[in-house]
Amino acid sequence: MGKFAVADAALSKIWVCKKCKARNKAGAEKCRKCGSSYLRPKRKDTRVKK
To answer: How many helices (H) and strands (E) in the chain?
Structure first.
Protein backbone atom coordinates (compact mmCIF):
# COMPACT_ATOMS: atom_id res chain seq x y z
CA MET A 1 0.00 0.00 0.00
CA GLY A 2 1.00 3.63 -0.33
CA LYS A 3 2.07 6.29 2.10
CA PHE A 4 -1.36 7.72 2.81
CA ALA A 5 -3.84 5.53 4.65
CA VAL A 6 -6.81 7.79 3.83
CA ALA A 7 -6.14 7.58 0.09
CA ASP A 8 -5.67 3.81 0.27
CA ALA A 9 -9.02 3.45 2.03
CA ALA A 10 -10.78 5.51 -0.64
CA LEU A 11 -9.19 3.51 -3.47
CA SER A 12 -10.19 0.22 -1.91
CA LYS A 13 -13.87 1.21 -2.23
CA ILE A 14 -13.71 1.53 -6.02
CA TRP A 15 -14.94 -1.17 -8.41
CA VAL A 16 -13.77 -1.29 -12.04
CA CYS A 17 -15.78 -2.57 -14.99
CA LYS A 18 -14.02 -5.37 -16.86
CA LYS A 19 -15.74 -4.42 -20.11
CA CYS A 20 -15.29 -0.62 -20.39
CA LYS A 21 -12.79 0.07 -17.53
CA ALA A 22 -15.07 2.65 -15.88
CA ARG A 23 -14.81 3.35 -12.15
CA ASN A 24 -17.88 2.55 -10.05
CA LYS A 25 -18.90 3.03 -6.43
CA ALA A 26 -18.46 0.24 -3.91
CA GLY A 27 -21.30 -2.24 -3.86
CA ALA A 28 -22.40 -1.48 -7.42
CA GLU A 29 -24.42 -4.27 -9.05
CA LYS A 30 -23.72 -3.09 -12.60
CA CYS A 31 -21.55 -0.54 -14.40
CA ARG A 32 -22.78 3.05 -14.43
CA LYS A 33 -21.45 3.58 -17.96
CA CYS A 34 -22.20 0.45 -19.99
CA GLY A 35 -24.58 -1.49 -17.71
CA SER A 36 -22.37 -4.60 -17.61
CA SER A 37 -22.40 -6.73 -14.47
CA TYR A 38 -18.75 -7.79 -14.83
CA LEU A 39 -17.05 -5.77 -12.07
CA ARG A 40 -13.85 -6.32 -10.13
CA PRO A 41 -12.35 -4.52 -7.12
CA LYS A 42 -9.60 -2.01 -7.84
CA ARG A 43 -6.08 -3.38 -7.41
CA LYS A 44 -4.66 -2.69 -3.99
CA ASP A 45 -0.98 -3.37 -4.71
CA THR A 46 1.27 -0.87 -6.44
CA ARG A 47 2.83 -2.11 -9.64
CA VAL A 48 6.25 -0.80 -10.65
CA LYS A 49 7.41 -0.50 -14.23
CA LYS A 50 10.42 -2.63 -15.05
So the answer is: 1, 3
